[in-house]
Amino acid sequence: MSIDPKHRMPKFDDTFIEQFHELLAWRRDVRHFKTTPVDRQILEQICKFADMAPSVGNSQPWRFVQVSDAQKRVQIQQSFLKSNEQALQGYEGEQAALYAKLKLSGLKEAPEHFAVFCDEACSQGAGLGRQTMPETLAYSCVMAIYNFWLAARAFEIGVGWVSILDPVEVQEALQVPDSWKLVAYLCVGKDARPHDTPELERVGWQARTEAQKRFLLD
Amino acid sequence: MSIDPKHRMPKFDDTFIEQFHELLAWRRDVRHFKTTPVDRQILEQICKFADMAPSVGNSQPWRFVQVSDAQKRVQIQQSFLKSNEQALQGYEGEQAALYAKLKLSGLKEAPEHFAVFCDEACSQGAGLGRQTMPETLAYSCVMAIYNFWLAARAFEIGVGWVSILDPVEVQEALQVPDSWKLVAYLCVGKDARPHDTPELERVGWQARTEAQKRFLLD
Fold first, then answer.
1. How many angstroms separate the first and last alpha carbons of chain B?
2. Chain A residues within 8 A of B133 when measuring between CB atoms
3. Which terminus of chain A has fewer Cβ atoms in its 10 Å neighbourhood, N or C?
4. B29-192 maps to which CATH number?
5. CB count, 10 Å around CB of B77?
6. pLDDT tens-digit map of B30-59
7. Can you give the residue ranges of every domain in chain A?
8. Model ipTM?
9. Which residue of B has its CA nearest to A84?
């Protein structure tokens, strides 16, 4: 007996929608981690959720590389320190003083690290959907990263996205193929300070603003 | 009495995690829409979920523009038809024949359209986190789009991401500021053919592949 897929489509009730809202509200970009390692099975489950992301032409171009090697982690940390020092030079006065005090990565404490690349040479999907907007390949990877992030939070694991890095230095440190372009470097582990308000808002760098200007509805 | 935020952090139980898995499994890139308009309040709710996305430096650079004007929609449709015809020229033989038969957008039937832009001139966040990887600004918009997509599905609304468009033509048709760069054009409405398998897989263009090569765990 064939079942019409229409009749298998699940309903998402108010309770689920409220909990999904909570998941988004408590997601956070985590910089304060407990050093306890994350169970391998939990990591595998989170990766399965990540792999369910949409992708242009069904290309699935994301490449998640776990980084456990101590020497490689030192190279990443050095790239961060250098990039962060350069970023600091772009600020002046009070803003520079505040920037210098910000904790912008959990690279030292996070028990698990993942570098996420986009394989720009990915043949899967045969190029469909990415002729006029080739950046959709990297965008597909971003959605896989966000699935990873949300699933991690559901499993009580925090994720911090570090972008203050030289992407070429990361690519070289990890010796990945030339066609793999860095999309994100993720710190992963138990969140030492869970909160429902972004840290940059709490420390006075940047609060969220009113949504109206971002949504122009007719 | 102050409440330690640690004690307010919600727990996500197995039931929620299963339902979240279902949400990801049934999300789909929708191209077959019912023409029934979407309730304005539902659209507003979906936009609220979209606005909860993470963003580099808390910059919130996404700009969602609803497109209801018939003339503007014609211009978008023309850009799609031209871009799709050009894409077809890149295929040969059986692949070209299959490509020509694919339904790659629901622009004609979808009751609601949204163009989503990234404001590259966005000063919110004061540039934090985007010196070495400026593309993280657009990536923030991708996560807002994905929030929109997932929330829509939870509210029984389908979303289709159209990338076969000339981004400059869309920008011009909608007369948005020069600094607003197109990230996605979304068709939104009731899904006429819900399914848990990607359409590109069902029609034989591209199946999903084994996850192992995408997740290199130590």
1. 46
2. 163, 165, 167, 182
3. N
4. 3.40.109.10
5. 14
6. 999 999 999 999 999 999 999 999 999 999
7. 30-195
8. 0.96
9. B129
Instruction: Confirm or reject contact between A176 and chain B (CB < 8 A).
Output: no
CB contact under 8 A, A128 and B99: yes
A12/chain B closest Cα distance in angstroms: 5
Nearest residue of B to residue A162, measured between CA atoms:
B129
Q: Which amino acid is at B132?
A: T
Length of chain B as a residue count: 218
Distance (Å, whole) CA B172 – CA A170: 38
The predicted structure's pLDDT at residue A81? 98
CA distance B114 to B194: 21
Q: How far is CA A73 from CA A157, B47, B56, in A?
A: 20, 39, 23
* B56 CB-side CA count, 13 A: 28
Instruction: Return all residues near A141 (Cβ < 8 A) that are at least 6 apart.
Output: A61, A62, A116, A117, A118, A183, A184
* Cross-chain Cβ contact A127/B90 below 8 Å: yes
> Which residues, including other chains, have CB under 8 Å from residue B213's CB and lie 6 or more apart?
none
Q: Is the pTM of this model over 0.95?
A: yes
Q: Tokens in use for B125?
A: 């966040």
Interface mutation vs chain B, best among A4, A8, A20, most B CBs within 10 Å: A20
- Whether A72 and chain B come into contact, CB under 8 Å, resolves to no
Q: Positive or negative CA dihedral for A61, A65, A71, A77?
A: positive
